[in-house]
Design brief:
With about 190 residues, the chain is α+β, with helices and mostly antiparallel strands. The protein has seven helices and seven strands; from the N terminus they run ααββββαβαβαβαα. α1 packs across α2 and α3 packs across α4. Bound molecules: zinc ion (ZN). One of its GO terms (biological process) is tetrahydrofolate biosynthetic process. Pfam families: GTP_cyclohydroI (PF01227).
Length: about 190
Amino acid sequence: MDATAVETLLRDLLIALGEDPTRPGLADTPARVTRFFTEFLGHEAGTTDTTFEYQAEGEGCVAVGGIRTASLCEHHLLPFTVEAVVAYAPVDRVLGLSKLVRIAHRHAHKLQLQERLGAEIAEDVARLTGSKQVAVWMVGDHSCMVARGVRAHGTRTATEYLLKPLAADMAAVERLRRVAALAGGAR
Ligand SMILES: [Zn+2]
């Protein structure tokens, strides 16, 4: 990211919006917003995702619910927050539980759509664990819905993403839904 260019453009944006970027309330705004973008979009590059071996006679599922993260809507550059539940059926590896949270943050901290966020989290969990049974449910609050013309206060947006092979296996989906509900979230 070119922080200098971003700061200059933000100052120009204030002028274009008819504001005086030198007035006290706005003087530090371009630098402050640039710091926000730098921190938010530069989140967690290069962290490792630990997996552990998993061997069991029966069949298991894992779900982590209550994962709250914030993202930026790529259509309006306005924030949205989501609460996610990630569920998967491990084959021979499980992910460290906190890694699921980290994966959610990693994919949230960019210009994003709620629909794609769920898909990216699921694909990452599948890639790291080798599982083909991964599902992500999310409920989101979009400030672009609240602040723009529709003024849709109190609306919530729910999404479900099922990894492709899983979508054809309703019994497996139901199994994941059950553990996800225990984790407090499959809607
Ligand atoms: Zn939006």
